[in-house]
User: What shape does this take?
Amino acid sequence: MDVIALGWWQLALAALLVVALAGCTAIARLGMGKSLIIAATRTIIQLALVGLVLEALFASARLHWVALMALAMLLIAGREVTARQQRRLLNGWTFGIGTVAMFLSSFTVTVLTLTLIIGPEPWYRPQYAIPLLGMMLGNTMTGVALALDRLTDTAWRQRAVIENRLMLGEPWQLAVGDIRREAMRSGLMPMINAMAAAGVVSLPGMMTGQILAGTSPALAVKYQILVMFTITLGTGFGTLAAVAAGSRRLFDDRQRLRLDRLSRPRG
Amino acid sequence: MVGYPSLSLVRVGVGTLIEASLDIAPGEIHCLTGPSGSGKSRLLRAVADLEPHAGEVWLGDIAQSSLPAHAWRGRVMLVPAESQWWAERVGEHMLRPSDTDLEALGFTPEVLDWQVARLSSGEKQRLALLRAVWREPATLLLDEPTANLDDATTRRVETWLIQRIRDRGWPVIWVAHDPDQIARVAQRHWRIAGSELIEVTAWM
Assistant: This one.
């Protein structure tokens, strides 16, 4: 079965409805009109560009182009993690920790999935590698950003408690233990919720896409399970690495709490 | 007292204070005073190695920098003016302190089941002292240990602390405001004046 082609005028119809929604919120003075239009415009431009890039990438299918694309995605994800922090670690540490954590987890799990489980020929075939990596990075990014934000924000709020525990002779890992657990939890919760609700409350996007594209539901389900598990692995290990490195960075070599390493919250 | 370590500050510098040197013999209490903002608490934090600082602190022949920081703080224990409690109940912060200690501070053993959120500031302060002492450090740094207590309780806590300090041979730095208290507890009395420590003699 082939996918029914979508014409530009059909998209324009949907776009028109978004404009109508923006118009309605503007008339009702709900103040969302502008951000709706801006976000919708960004969607059009970004996805159109990505479409062009992917067309070119799929046509060439060379390893170094795939690697370059992956690197660009990683750096953008790192920037996004940094942008989502109330209090960043200064001197680029948030970007560094976030990017390295995502690289270690997302890339390792993606490459393992491609070579050991799915096994396309060649293993880096962009039709498989890029969407898989994209889903991994997108979710790992959310987990890492939430966990780091929770970690630094809670450490800031509870600095007196952490220091009092240090005064009683506790090692830093113990003094910050509760906060690390909380950070880990907020990083992993979205993925755990998604797995628990999959198929019952929501039909996952990738499965929906595959079914629309004519794949049998049974196969689409298998792919979806695989993707959910790999995303969980990527998010979990990424968050784990980010929380470990981030909490270490809150203390110096004499185990002193160093909140001067955090930026002021953005106002 | 032989066999117990003394506490020595050698040219410790932190904040506006430069080259503070002190020698505290085992079992001796040195009181520290100074206007607010003069750096009393910061000096204690430096001695406990919670703040970057210049100079070296010695506990007997052990240098601060030669021990892992948490091991140092386990021995040189700072009790801050305002204590923090992270668990639900008092007893989760210290396992079975002795009944005599609890009684000396005006508590019954049931206090261990109390919720931390219900404690008054005075109760917190006394329990924070007990929590520090219960960990059996080698010296105490006390930051206004009786600030939230009434006169009778202050006397009670002083007696208990002095008894314990003598028994264990701990060298102690005690930040205080009240001249009467200083006269009661201190062997020596230092005042922070600008960038240095000046000894206050008894007849002044």
Remarks:
- Residues 63-261 of chain A form one domain.
- Chain A has two domains: 1-60, 63-261.
- The two ends of chain A are 53 Å apart (CA to CA).
